[in-house]
Amino acid sequence: MINVLFADDHEMVRIGVAAYLSAQQDIDVIAEADDGGEAVELALDLRPDIILMDLVMEEMDGIEATTKIIEQWPEAKIIIVTSFLDDEKVYPALEAGATSYMLKTSKANEIAKAIRATYQGQSILEPEVTGKIMNRMREKPVDSPHDQLTDREMEILMLVAQGKTNQEIADQLFIALKTVKVHVSNVLGKLEVQDRTQAVIYAFKNNLV
What we know:
This protein has 10 helices and 5 strands. The protein is elongated. Helix 1 links the parallel strand 1 (2-7) and strand 2. The protein has a 5-stranded parallel β-sheet with strand order 2-1-3-4-5, with helices on both faces. The termini are far apart. The chain has helices at 11-22, 36-46, 62-72, 87-96, 108-119, 127-139, 151-161, 166-173, 177-191, 196-205; strands at 2-7, 27-33, 50-53, 78-82, 100-103. The protein has 2 domains: 2-139, 3-Layer(aba) Sandwich (Rossmann fold); 145-205, Winged helix-like DNA-binding domain superfamily/Winged helix DNA-binding domain (Arc Repressor Mutant, subunit A).
């Protein structure tokens, strides 16, 4: 049996979905909660196989409850079941540690399937959620290795690209030779290159000089 905890502050929704799920041969709703705080207590006490979590609840919302559960029980499998598809709801829920994201407009048998799949280690997302995530990925700029460089390290890279030696760099910047060597080493590591020559090539390829 797949033991399920269902947290939702809408009693009729909770009772209806719980009744359907408990009628399944392999699913048992062992506890219900009407707010996030109670969900956290029950989850950590009972350690159910699956937690169905509503997002909007009065005492503590589903995102905060999910965060608290995952902090103390990282292996918890939480399925968000909500009416919301807003970005400010979807991403925080997934970032908090939710495994799957379902809409309340889903048919009851689809939620049952999501429970079984999540129990088996899969992550189930509504098509609309998947689309939002893909759009978010397309919009999110990809960080370049040189974005990790500090201002001083970028300055060192520019001087290396100009062909200056460590001693010349030290003299120009009025810093110790040992400090220059440390900065150069950091630059090579952050750019993931093997030597100064490769660092110079990287700088020109990325239009840094």
